[in-house]
Write a structure and sequence with these properties.
By secondary structure, this protein is α+β, with helices and mostly antiparallel strands. The protein has 1 helix and 4 strands; from the N terminus they run ββαββ. It has a 4-stranded antiparallel beta sheet with strand order 2-1-3-4, with no helix packed on it.
Amino acid sequence: MEGQLSIQRVGGMLPTLRPWRVHPLHSLNAPQLASVQQLFEDTRQPAPAPHPEAMCYVLELTTPQGVQKTTLGFSELPPGLHPLLP
């Protein structure tokens, strides 16, 4: 699959520290790729906004079809994506 997944950590005790990682989709293993696809195809309602000091992750999926973005707390991320976090 062509494209990339960018993950940025925001919030927490050091809100100005916003580490991020970029992963080419071809470098993900099959379970991770399936988790990413399911995450962005899911039509559930977004979770309520986290506490202002809580840490969350902004995931951005860039493919030839366009860019999709979502923000999730750690507990909402599929466990297969945890090794990709910054």
